[in-house]
């Protein structure tokens, strides 16, 4: 029987995180993301970005966590979440940025992916639970995440965990192709 857990990402996980992102995007988002974008995604470039996110995060409130599945004595990374304080990248169009001197009380998920063949085994829930624990420890009172408008799996997962749409939408420009997104939020109190 397979079991799983979540741990902080390490520098040596960067290539595996990039592999998970590429595989998941090319499988789960093949109908959402323009094909030429998926074809041009470069594993070495992604690996470098993830290594930087893990080893030199923008703040001590930014984290990358790995979901690990254990089976038959072997362990395998099967998903990850990247979290941090909400910022301009998680704001909706026309939404004011917080004042620079104001404390940020809203957290954000910037990436939450589980390799499709390992879906529905609790890895996403474990990642979300670990993220929520970090947010509680760091004093966040709410969280937000963007989801592709036509991504029923992510939307169903987050709404089943108590998240709701906040009415904000945006078009993510992917090399001239606008992909609609909807924002979800949750109170952490």
TrEMBL record:
<dbReference type="Pfam" id="PF00583">
    <property type="entry name" value="Acetyltransf_1"/>
</dbReference>
<keyword id="KW-0808">Transferase</keyword>
<feature type="domain" description="N-acetyltransferase">
    <location>
        <begin position="4"/>
        <end position="185"/>
    </location>
</feature>
<dbReference type="InterPro" id="IPR050832">
    <property type="entry name" value="Bact_Acetyltransf"/>
</dbReference>
<protein>
    <submittedName>
        <fullName>N-acetyltransferase</fullName>
    </submittedName>
</protein>
<keyword id="KW-0012">Acyltransferase</keyword>
<dbReference type="InterPro" id="IPR000182">
    <property type="entry name" value="GNAT_dom"/>
</dbReference>
<dbReference type="GO" id="GO:0016747">
    <property type="term" value="F:acyltransferase activity, transferring groups other than amino-acyl groups"/>
</dbReference>
<dbReference type="InterPro" id="IPR016181">
    <property type="entry name" value="Acyl_CoA_acyltransferase"/>
</dbReference>
């Amino acid at each position: 029987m397979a079991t799983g857990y979540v741990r902080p990402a390490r520098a040596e996980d960067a290539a595996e995180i990039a592999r998970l992102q590429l595989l998941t995007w090319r499988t789960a988002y093949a109908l959402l993301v323009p094909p030429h974008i998926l074809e041009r995604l470069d594993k070495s470039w992604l690996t470098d970005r993830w290594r930087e996110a893990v080893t030199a995060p923008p703040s001590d409130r930014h984290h990358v966590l790995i979901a690990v599945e254990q089976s038959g004595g072997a362990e395998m990374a099967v998903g990850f979440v990247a979290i941090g304080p909400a910022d301009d990248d998680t704001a909706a169009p026309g939404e004011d940025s917080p004042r620079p001197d104001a404390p940020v009380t809203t957290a954000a998920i910037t990436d939450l992916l589980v390799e499709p063949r390992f879906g529905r085994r609790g890895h996403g829930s474990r990642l979300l639970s670990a993220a929520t624990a970090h947010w509680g420890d760091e004093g966040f009172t709410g969280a937000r995440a963007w989801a592709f408008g036509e991504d029923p799996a992510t939307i169903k997962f987050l709404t089943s965990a108590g998240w709701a749409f906040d009415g904000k939408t945006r078009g993510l420009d992917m090399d001239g192709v606008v992909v609609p997104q909807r924002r979800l939020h949750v109170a952490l109190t």
